[in-house]
Amino acid sequence: MIVVTGATGQLGRLVVEGLKTKLPADQIVAAVRNPAKAADLGVTVRQADYNEPETLTAALEGADKVLLISGTELGRRVAQHEAVVEAARKAGAHIVYTSAPKAHDTALILAPEHKATEEIIRESGLPFTLLRNGWYHENYEETVREAAQTGEFIGSAGEGRTSSASRADFADAAVAVLTGDGHQNKVYELSGDTAWTRAELAATIAEAAGKPVTYADLTPEQHQAALVEAGLPEGAAQFTVALDGNTKDGLLGETSGELRALIGRPTTPISDYVARVVKSA
Ligand SMILES: NC(=O)c1ccc[n+]([C@@H]2O[C@H](COP(=O)([O-])OP(=O)(O)OC[C@H]3O[C@@H](n4cnc5c(N)ncnc54)[C@H](OP(=O)(O)O)[C@@H]3O)[C@@H](O)[C@H]2O)c1
Predict the structure, then answer these.
(1) pTM higher than 0.70, yes or no?
(2) What's the chain's average pLDDT?
(3) Residue 55: C-alpha distances to residues 27, 50, 58 (Å)
């Protein structure tokens, strides 16, 4: 039996859909904090909140494999993930975790909670697989939409590259690991096949929108001021600027080929994603 946490989220839903093409639905459990949201999934649903350990023990009972989809509450995630690992330990399950690029050794602003979770998983003694997911194309939806409208977007990532892939690509990798053999105690650095600069993204949006689009590269201070001026809260602006700094430093730009290898096909090109967003705008 395979249990997927966060199964009502965007990645989780795609994973459940993928699993249903490979396994009978009664061998798939969606562990979700809000079962009402999971009514359409078509698999067994169990209630499970990362903040309530007893729900996790019950939800993971009988699991052979568990996909722990990292949570969304920054700052609380280590304790939450630890509770899921403890429930997996009680079930004696193989745990698969959605981590971040080079989580063990990177200055990426989001990495510390992933690094701590990876350590907890290793210390649990359970068989594990670490899916170090790179950036989703979907993170740039708003950028693409706005740039296609206004003809420009801003940032402070310089010439830094981003090796993004679609959420569906990462979901397919999780399905491959959950349903395949030979992934025990492996660490996968997952990324898109190609890495693009912001200027290249501007050209891609321009092509899809049929009009000129430019990228204005700012200093971190200018970027921060512009985001706050546009109405973003101070903290969210700092986070965005820090991520652009990480991008500039190359922390989100490696192309390992491991995602392509796991899913057995090329990753979705950013140009396909941009075309889809521009068309739907
Ligand atoms: N690689 C990237 O570019 C990238 C980008 C964004 C996020 N992420 C990470 O990848 C994860 C999956 O991405 P996503 O796009 O699927 O995010 P998402 O759509 O926000 O899904 C997050 C899932 O986590 C569940 N969750 C949050 N807190 C929980 C709790 N206390 N107990 C139980 N479940 C809880 C949510 O439940 P509900 O459905 O009830 O809300 C949701 O199902 C995110 O959670 C985040 O850690 C990665």
Answers:
(1) yes
(2) 98
(3) 19, 8, 5
